[in-house]
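Give me C-alpha cells for this 207-residue protein.
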Amino acid sequence: ANAAMLVVADLPGTTWRQTATDEFGGSLLDTQDSDLEQTPACNAYVKKITDAAKKAQESLIGRASRSFQQEGDLFGVSIDAEVGVYKDSKVATALISEAKGAFGSKDFENCFREVIKGNEGEIPDEVKFDLKAGKAATSAPHGGVAQAFDISLSSAGVNFTLHAELYAWADKNATALITVFGSPEEIKAEVVKAAVEKTDQKLSKAQ
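Here you go.
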C-alpha cells in the first residue's frame, strides 16, 4: 500500500507539504460505527458504506494514507490519498461497487447538507450556505466513482465558495480513494488529475 502513495513531487505547483501519514480517522471507507447513523439524512448512506467496509475488513492485508496541503491566498487546497490492499480482488471490487452506489446517490448529498446544518452552532447565524453538485476535474480510473460538490457561503454581503471532489476506484485486489478540498479558484485541474493518475499508476506498478 505504501508503494502506491503520493509524494509532494507528484503534485504540480509549489508550496505543497505533507501534513499526515496513515491517519485513517474519518475515512469515507471507515469501518467504525458513526454517530452520523443517527442523523436521518445520513442513516442509509453511512450504514451502507460501514457495512461494506466491515465485510471487506476481514480480507484487508495492507492500508496506507497521506495528506497534503498547499497554502493559498484564500483557503488553500488539501488532498487526502488512501489505498487499501485485500486478499481477494472480488472484495476490492465489491467495496468500490457499494461505495459508487452510495457516493453517487442523493443520500450522500443530503447527508453532506445535513452535517453542515448540524454544525450551525459553530457557524454564526448570519452565515448562509448552499450545497450543489459540482463538476469533477477528471474521471475515476477503472470505472470508479467521481463526485464533486460546491458549497456556497454568504455573510454580510460577502460571498465565497468551497469545492470538494471525491474519487474512488478498484484495481485488481486494491482500492484507492482521493479527496480534494479547497476554494475553486485555487484547485487546479492539473493537480487533481495528477493526484488521481499518479496514484493509479503507482498502484498498478506495485501489484
